[in-house]
Amino acid sequence: MTALAPRLADTRRKPVRAARLPRSLGRVLATAGTVFLLSSALTFGLGALSGANPAAAVLGETATPADIARMNHQFGLDRPLWEQYVSWLGHAFTGDLGRSWFTTVPVADSIRQAMPVDLSIAGLALLMAVVLGGAAGVAAALRAGGRLDRAVTALCALLGTLPGFVVAIALVTVFSLRLGWLPSGGYVPLDMDPAQWLRYTVMPALALSLEAAAAIARQLRTSLVGTLRENYVTGAVMRGLPARRVVFGHALRNAAGPALTALGMSVPMLLGGAVVTQQIFALPGLAQLTLQSAEQHDIPVIQGTLLVTIAVVLVVNVAVNAALLALNPAARRREVTRR
After folding, report:
1. Rounded distance, CA 265 to CA 267, Å?
2. 143 three-class SS
3. How much is the pTM?
4. Which of 116, 117, 94, 98 is nearest to 107 (CA)?
5. What is residue 99's DSSP assignment?
6. What is the spatial distance between Cα 143 and Cα 138, in angstroms, rounded to a whole number?
């Protein structure tokens, strides 16, 4: 009864915490906004300091200084750097990321064409990581100290050391070249043929998901083993609640925090690993667009793709932090204590 008292007190204070939740979310959003502004300034600054001269590159060796000056004025490169940044960021908030220096195609249109590939691969990889990592973590925690626990721990340690491109090459070798079950490269949009979309995306997504699944399994196993030893779990068992309800209805909710944090930290790794994975599977995604633009020194495209990637990472992190605040009472208590 004594062990259950804090839980009952938590329930009585629920309206107060519900009122504090928007304030905690406000702090998360303010932090994300600050990070976005600093990252955008760094991205724009690095592009401006790269020394790329679009006027000379577009006009060629026969360009005169007057022609170069005229085109620099057309691109707005003769203005102060801070003025260029403010104008670029202001237009970015309206969806205008500028135009490619070489093709004059709007950067937003290029990103809009490539982005579904990245979202498909990353979304499927996240789903695989949650399912595989969650199932392995829960199974290992419920058999803590047993053979299954040791096997899951060893497998997670192995997967955590394997780079995504090594897994990708191994998958292509086995499932494409040896067995011929799946295509080794290419992409079909989801709205065109869902079955073909799955055939083309399952291997890249699996290659990207294994490291994240290992991290989720490790974090969930450790936190769930500790949670299952808490007094309120023992009290729930003694009251005769079914084991499934105790684990999935009570313990897992409080143990999911570290796994959610690992999931949020996996998103930048997934996007970073997509650069190599898209090269191996010949996927026309955002990473390929960035690489091609980097080879041409097409700064507006590079800045646009990086800005969109930063925004995606921050949105996912805000969602993870919101889920942590909603699921974990301890996280809300820490937010309140900081104030």
Report:
1. 6
2. coil
3. 0.76
4. 98
5. B
6. 9
Distance CA 177, CA 201 (A): 17
Task: Count Cβ atoms below 10 Å from residue 335 Cβ, excluding itself.
Answer: 20
What is the number of alpha carbons within 13 Å of residue 6 lying toward its C-beta?
8
CA 161 to centroid of chain Cα atoms = 19
Sign of torsion over alpha carbons 139, 140, 146, 147: positive
Query: Residue 119 burial by CB count (10 A; 0-12/13-18/19+): exposed, middle or buried?
Result: middle
Owner of token pair 């047993």: 146
Q: What is the pLDDT along the chain (339 residues), one digit of tens a residue?
A: 444 444 444 444 455 455 566 777 788 888 888 999 998 898 888 877 776 777 766 676 677 778 778 877 877 778 888 888 898 899 999 888 888 888 888 999 999 988 888 888 888 998 999 999 999 999 999 988 889 999 999 999 888 888 878 888 899 999 998 898 999 888 888 888 899 999 999 999 998 888 889 999 999 999 999 888 888 888 888 888 888 888 888 888 888 888 888 888 877 777 777 777 888 888 888 888 888 888 888 888 988 998 998 998 889 888 888 887 777 655 555 544 554
